[in-house]
Amino acid sequence: MPARGRTALTASLLGGAVRVSAGVLWLLEGFLKYRAGFGASDILLVADSAAGNTRVPGFFAPLGELMRAVPGLFGIAIPALEVLLGVLLILGGGRVWTAIVALCSIGTLMLYWSSDQLIAQYPILVVLSALVLAIPQAGLVGLPLLTRTRHPTASP
After folding, report:
1. Dihedral sign, CA of 7, 9, 13, 15?
2. What distance in Å separates the CA atoms of residue 119 and residue 133, rounded to the nearest whole number?
3. Residue 155 domain-assigned (yes or no)
4. What is the pLDDT along the chain (156 residues), one digit of tens a residue?
5. CA angle, 147 then 143 then 133, to 5°
6. Number of domains within the chain
7. 156 is a domain residue
8. Terminal-residue alpha carbon distance, the chain
9. Does residue 2 lie within any of the structural domains?
């Protein structure tokens, strides 16, 4: 195998491993919330603590108000979002789709951080998601590879 082929294969496998690791962490986060009965009261706790917290930037205030207005919706949506991010990262989906999901992952984590919700695995998830963005081949090993149809070549 030529060096370029080995490099591409290594990048695909490494990127895929990083992507799947991020996906597993997101799944664990979402399932933990489901098992713990995460819901409206948890959302209200986050929104209320963010409202009186000087470490929370001002841009979070409108979202905090929305969270207070419909905490039940957010209580369902947050764990569902985490599970969805996990599933999509694990499956992969080509370069563009994987990059979009990795950006959504980083955006979600930044939103959590902006509300002063700091959990040990969030920095790890940001680094893993950033690596998925940095390795263009990260989305190539996964669903796209499994669904690629192989056509037998005709014999001469």
Report:
1. positive
2. 22
3. no
4. 677 777 777 888 888 899 999 999 999 999 999 999 999 999 999 999 999 899 999 999 999 999 999 999 999 999 999 999 999 999 988 888 999 999 999 999 999 999 999 888 899 999 999 999 999 888 877 665 555 555 555 555
5. 140
6. 1
7. no
8. 25
9. no
Instruction: Confirm whether pTM is higher than 0.90.
Output: no
To the nearest 10°, report the CA torsion of 98, 91, 109, 111: 80
**3-state DSSP helix/strand/coil % of the chain, to nearest 5:** 80, 0, 20
Residue 26: domain span: 19-142
Half-sphere exposure of 30 (CA within 13 A, CB side): 21
Which of 22, 36, 14 lies closest to 91 in space, CA to CA?
Answer: 22
CB 29 within 8 A of CB 129: no
Structure tokens belonging to residue 142: 């996964």
Which residue do the tokens 């919706």 mark? 73
How would you class 101 by CB atoms within 10 Å of its CB: exposed for 0-12, middle for 13-18, buried for 19 or more? buried
Q: Is residue 50 part of a domain?
A: yes
Q: C-alpha 152: how far from its chain's center?
A: 37
